[in-house]
Design a protein that fits this description.
The complex is a heterodimer of chains A (114) and B (117). In chain A, a hairpin with a 5-residue loop joins strand 5 and strand 6. With 114 residues, chain A is an all-beta fold. In chain A, strands 2, 5, 6, 10, 11 and 12 form a six-stranded mixed beta sheet that branches. Chain A has a four-stranded antiparallel beta sheet with strand order 3-9-8-7, with no helix packed on it. Chain A has no helices and twelve strands. Chain B is built from no helices and eleven strands. The chains are: A mainly beta (114), B mainly beta (117). Chains A and B meet through strand 5, strand 6, strand 10 and strand 11 of A and strand 4, strand 5, strand 9 and strand 10 of B.
Chain lengths: 114, 117
Amino acid sequence: GDSVTQMEGPVTLSEEAFLTINCTYTATGYPSLFWYVQYPGEGLQLLLKATKADDKGSNKGFEATYRKETTSFHLEKGSVQVSDSAVYFCALSEPNFGNEKLTFGTGTRLTIIP
Amino acid sequence: DTAVSQTPKYLVTQMGNDKSIKCEQNLGHDTMYWYKQDSKKFLKIMFSYNNKELIINETVPNRFSPKSPDKAHLNLHINSLELGDSAVYFCASSQVVPKRGPYNEQFFGPGTRLTVL
């Protein structure tokens, strides 16, 4: 079955540091890939997405590129801020019209210190 | 305007009780979902409904029964609550448009934190 593997957290960085959160996936078909973010006490928000190989999703300074050859979708940001502190989830959805579901990684807690 | 709303936000109850969590979406989506997030933040799908029809049921105990009175609502009823049911439950919705290809952006509610004592 489908699965998503994220790097273990928690991750603690200083403000303005470079961020990478690794994500690799296993899928039987050709999935769409997502990063969701969960701020403290809130629900999940879609951060960015990519639907085909070599697509780059980007939002709020975060980027991730769909790499089919390495089955990866690593999240990066050049200069993190305290407000980026949250839990980040990598997820995939296989094409199965009408029967799609999101398969999530375990989440990576990110803490940014001033 | 709230896109996906859940009530209540917090629910504390005793073992053995029966409780319900309500979810409503005003996005006009045709598919709704329930996810469970455990204490380690792991998220797993429980159910999905498309136009009031059950599509996904991921080996969830029979004590959990989703009900969809219309495509804007998906409620979750839990019978005989157990300690292990304590978690945060998230509702989500999406518009599954087959002709647009493999794409499933889901919009999540704020979550309901259930604590079973």
